[in-house]
């Protein structure tokens, strides 16, 4: 028994002796393979554990950051005594998460921008706009390089550094404002002054600020009227200002009330109050006789300040006046100094409610135009900026009931504007629509010139609600532009959205606005956050600066810091 047990023990220990395997090479090989496999499994498990620990650590940090954010919000209530958590919490979550689909779509939009910019660079460099079909440039704005200046901030936000630097050199060395040209004060302000100021706010490069000041000085004589309400046309070389003949000598509401953001920002950045004083005098004058419904006709007499007998509209020639009432309030960080802008805007929103009608049978909400005491069942695509404006302003109401009412209206109007696109064979919207009982909507003027307004509203609604439906609608519209408007040498509008016949113009606002809003629609909320930036009517973001009592705001020039990035509306031309 004892001998047999010892024999078994001895037999077991022989497997541990090296000589056993030296005499049996196949078993040695098997042992080696087994050792390698075990080692690999152990190493793999350790790697997984380390990666898991890193992920847990990052998640804990995110949770801690959100807890700190909630703590700050709980300690900081708004003036109504309510805490608005939704916007800031949504922002934090979106900063953490970037949907792979959003990344893919954002890159598609960037590629579209590269195609548009590359075509402009190749065929129309330094000129105002590209005519893609004829592969030539045209100076629609007197030769101010409108597309180039309009595109500066889009290039910067998209991280297209090489293209931005080349454009910057052109601005520094070739941009010349001494033109014997009858310029639109409105268009030059929103595109050129706005584009240069935005490039300055984003990059901190003073060349843009200097150029913005230079062109603004050439525009200032337009405000030298008995009332301070500006003439809408000025000769850039001689400084002679006047109004267009087709208005009967009247100033246009949108053209006279859509320079406030840019000129206030210019005074803040330069320390010179004259720009701000000129444009704020306009609002002061209008506010003296501002109607209870907040709706002004599109023509105003610059000599008397009286409103002419003309239509009331949130479309062409009226639109951006109302937009800037809200946005100057936001630009000043909603302080008491700018509260009268908000008060005027809220009056206008009460008036807007009186213009809302709904179609049959589908109950599309739309904004009528008003002429005297009668309403016209017509809505411009230009008025599709309104859903975004209303949504943006809805969060400023003290009563939750009003806030929800206007947000719901914004969502209804956005659905209508989206259907402007979906209702045509090309899935691109016409210029305006008429509504008929029992027939919903029908396209009126049927061209499409690459306008941004609906995409702009989808951007705001997505940012403010987090509802990804607005991203899907935007993507459908982007694909329709790609299908119908993209050609080998750029992007063109359509002469007719029913037939798809193309025009020969790539509007500067397609790069400044349409593509920028598409890009931001698929970007995290940390890219141009709405609590730090306000967009002018040409989609040029300007920094929000707190306005305080006690006179003119201090000079911000020295503390300007570059923006960190990730890797009105125009009348337009039919081309």
TrEMBL record:
Residue spans crossing the bilayer? 27-43
**Which cofactors is this protein said to need?**
Mn(2+); Mg(2+); Ca(2+)
Task: Name any one GO molecular function.
Answer: calcium ion binding
Query: Primary place of residence?
Result: membrane
Q: What class of enzyme is it?
A: hydrolase
Q: What are the GO BP annotations of this UniProt entry?
A: carbohydrate metabolic process; N-glycan processing
Q: Which InterPro entries match?
A: 6hp_glycosidase-like_sf, Glyco_hydro_47, Glycosyl_Hydrolase_47, Seven-hairpin_glycosidases
The membrane-topology field of this record reads:
Single-pass type II membrane protein; Single-pass membrane protein
- Domain of life, source organism: Eukaryota
What is the name of this protein?
A: alpha-1,2-Mannosidase
């Amino acid at each position: 028994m004892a001998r047999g047990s010892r024999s078994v023990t001895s037999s077991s220990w022989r497997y541990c002796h090296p000589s056993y395997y030296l005499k049996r090479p196949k078993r040695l090989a098997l042992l080696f393979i087994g050792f390698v496999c075990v080692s690999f499994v152990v190493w793999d498990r350790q790697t997984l554990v380390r990666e898991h620990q890193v992920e847990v650590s990052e998640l804990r940090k995110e949770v801690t950051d959100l807890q700190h954010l909630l703590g700050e919000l709980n300690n900081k209530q708004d003036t109504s005594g309510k805490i608005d958590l939704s916007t800031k919490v949504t922002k934090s979550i979106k900063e953490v998460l970037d949907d792979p689909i959003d990344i893919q779509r954002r890159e598609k939009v960037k590629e579209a921008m590269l195609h548009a910019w590359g075509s402009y660079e190749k065929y129309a460099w330094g000129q105002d706009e590209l005519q893609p079909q004829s592969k030539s440039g045209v100076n629609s704005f007197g030769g101010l390089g409108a597309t180039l200046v309009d595109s500066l901030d889009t290039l910067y936000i998209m991280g297209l550094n090489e293209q931005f630097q080349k454009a910057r050199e052109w601005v520094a060395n070739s941009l010349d404002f001494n033109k014997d040209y009858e310029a639109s004060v409105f268009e030059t302000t929103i595109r050129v002054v706005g584009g240069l100021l935005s490039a300055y706010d984003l990059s901190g490069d003073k060349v843009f600020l200097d150029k913005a000041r230079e062109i603004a000085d050439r525009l200032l004589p337009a405000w030298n009227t008995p009332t301070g309400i500006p003439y809408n046309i000025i000769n850039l070389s001689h400084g002679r200002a006047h109004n267009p003949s087709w208005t009967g000598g009247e100033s246009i509401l949108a053209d006279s009330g859509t320079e406030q953001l840019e000129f206030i920002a210019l005074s803040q950045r330069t320390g010179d109050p004259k720009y701000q004083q000129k444009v704020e005098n306009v609002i002061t004058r209008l506010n003296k006789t501002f109607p209870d419904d907040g709706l002004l006709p599109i023509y105003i007499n610059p000599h008397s300040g009286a409103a002419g007998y003309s239509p009331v509209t949130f479309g062409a020639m009226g639109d951006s006046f109302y937009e800037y009432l809200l946005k100057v309030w936001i630009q000043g960080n909603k302080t008491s100094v700018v509260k009268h802008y908000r008060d005027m805007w809220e009056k206008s929103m009460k008036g807007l409610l009186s213009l809302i009608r709904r179609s049959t049978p589908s109950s599309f909400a739309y904004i009528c135009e008003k002429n005297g005491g009668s309403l016209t069942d017509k809505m411009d695509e230009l008025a599709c900026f309104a859903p975004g404006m209303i949504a943006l302003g809805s969060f400023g109401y003290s009563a939750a009931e009003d806030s929800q009412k206007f947000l719901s209206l914004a969502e209804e109007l956005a659905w209508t504007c989206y259907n402007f696109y979906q209702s045509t064979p090309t899935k691109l919207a016409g210029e305006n629509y008429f509504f008929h009982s029992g027939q919903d909507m029908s396209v009126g003027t049927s061209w499409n010139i690459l306008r941004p307004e609906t995409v702009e509203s989808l951007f705001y609604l997505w940012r403010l609600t987090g509802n990804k439906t607005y991203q899907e609608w935007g993507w459908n519209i982007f694909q329709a532009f790609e299908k119908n408007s993209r050609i080998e040498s750029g992007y063109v509008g359509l002469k007719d959205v029913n037939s798809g016949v193309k025009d020969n113009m790539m509007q500067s606002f397609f790069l400044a606005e349409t593509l920028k809003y598409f890009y931001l629609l698929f970007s995290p909320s940390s890219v141009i956050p709405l609590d730090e930036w306000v967009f002018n009517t040409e989609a040029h973001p300007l920094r929000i600066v707190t306005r305080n009592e006690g006179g003119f705001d201090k000079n911000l020039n020295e503390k300007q810091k570059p923006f960190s990035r990730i890797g009105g509306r125009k009348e337009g031309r039919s081309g």
